[in-house]
Design a protein that fits this description.
By secondary structure, the chain is an alpha+beta fold. It has one domain. The chain is 21% helix and 26% strand. The chain has 1 helix and 3 strands, in the order βββα. It has a 3-stranded antiparallel β-sheet with strand order 2-1-3, with helices on one face. A hairpin with a 5-residue loop joins strand 1 and strand 2. The longest helix is centred in the C-terminal third of the chain and has 13 residues.
């Protein structure tokens, strides 16, 4: 079993995307999560991917 922390990008109904650690990811039935990307091995990788999602128009900047 690995002790590494993974991160996910979750899109909220408002259109904003947040980076959250894997231990905070709820089940797929969470109404507060419109879309989810990940897992990413580092927070830096998740941030870079979130920037790409914003540029692609899939997320709104905060």
């Amino acid at each position: 079993m690995s002790n590494t922390q993974n991160f996910y990008i979750v899109k909220r109904p408002t259109g904003n995307c947040e980076i959250i650690p894997s231990n905070e990811v709820a089940g797929d039935d969470n109404p507060e999560v419109v879309e989810k990307w990940g897992p990413f091995e580092s927070q830096g990788e998740a941030i870079a991917r979130r920037v790409g999602l914003i540029r692609a128009g899939k997320c709104q900047p905060v």
